[in-house]
Amino acid sequence: MDGIFNINKPCGVTSTHVVRTIKRLTGIKKVGHAGTLDPLASGVLPICVGKATRVIEYLINQDRSYRAVINLGIQTDTFDKEGVVVSDKSGYEIPSTAEIMKVLESFIGDIEQIPPMYSAIKVDGKRLYDLARNGVTLELEPRLVKVFEISLLEWNNPSLDIKIKCGRGFYVRSLANDLGIKLGMGAYLEALTRLKHGSFHIGNSVDYYSIEKIFDECKWADIIMDIDSAITHLPKIVISTKFEEDILNGRPVFVSPEIPLGRPKEISRIYSKNNRFIGIIEFDDVLGAWRPKKVINVEVDQGQYAK
């Protein structure tokens, strides 16, 4: 079995637990996800199985969209509702919608963000949340992250309902904390749902609690997605049988009337004439050819599920 399950992770379940569930149900050891969702959060969690784990590195870097509820007036040590209250200014002067929008817009673009101490980031081989639980506090360096859009969906004091489109490494919990600081009253993350990760949407995700029944009924082929569904953002190149043999044998494919010129280090996905996904290639501008980067070559026709 090789493919991707688009799981809708519920609150209270860890991303690691979802991976373990898929391992148990499939009997396959090579299973992984493409970006942790906190136990507090719900939503899209793509789970890669078998050969699909080879495209995780491309999925990790893709954009995400979230819907978040942020409560004003209280600051916690974890930046969310599960933490210890470190500041309570619940008697704050209620800000206007215009004031809130102005502050939210200040987070759009390439910004520096300090991650939460309670996070899965490793420092000297140790997870920050393990250090934090042992009473260790570190001065963390800000990291450059990208925010494409922030929309205010509803403002009903003390709660903000917002939608965010961002890049890899962005912490919505940090956004909540930083928003509270800028408004001068503190804030924490009440709820978070990942709506989209790359090409995976919550609208076509599978509820985690339905997975057991689907496998019991042997209907997993109805929900597994092809490996290349994770990399639809990459350019597509279709090649003839001759060039396919070159790629499968690790040989470069030179630019020709059939093979387009690429940019230096450009990555593309490559297919056979019958639209079978072969793998990923990278353009070598010195050689003037495409080199095989990841030959996956799952024997599956277009529109069918990997098995």
Structure summarized in a few sentences:
The protein is of the alpha+beta class and 307 residues long. The protein folds into 3 domains: 3-62 and 199-229, 2-Layer Sandwich (Pseudouridine synthase), CATH 3.30.2350; 65-194, 2-Layer Sandwich (Pseudouridine synthase), CATH 3.30.2350.10; 234-295, Archaeosine Trna-guanine Transglycosylase, Chain: A, domain 4, CATH 2.30.130.
Topology:
Blueprint lengths: L2 E7 L5 H12 L4 E3 L8 E8 L6 H5 L3 E9 L1 E3 L8 E4 L8 H9 L3 E5 L8 E2 L2 E2 H6 L9 E14 L2 E8 L5 H12 L3 E11 L2 E2 L4 E2 L3 H6 L7 E2 L10 E3 L2 H8 L4 E2 L12 E5 L5 E8 L4 E7 L12
Account of the 3D structure:
It is a single chain. It is globular and about 75 Å long. Helices cover 19% and strands 35% of the residues. The model is unreliable at 300-307 (pLDDT under 50). It contains 7 helices and 20 strands. The protein is α+β, with helices and mostly antiparallel strands and 307 residues long. It has 3 domains: 3-62 and 199-229, 2-Layer Sandwich (Pseudouridine synthase), CATH 3.30.2350.10; 65-194, 2-Layer Sandwich (Pseudouridine synthase), CATH 3.30.2350.10; 234-295, PUA domain (Archaeosine Trna-guanine Transglycosylase, Chain: A, domain 4), CATH 2.30.130.10. The relative contact order is 0.18. The longest helix has 12 residues, at 15-26. Strands 1, 2, 3, 4, 7, 10, 11, 12, 13, 14 and 15 form an 11-stranded mixed β-sheet that branches. Strands 16-18-19-20-17 form a 5-stranded mixed β-sheet. Strands 5-6 form a two-stranded antiparallel sheet.
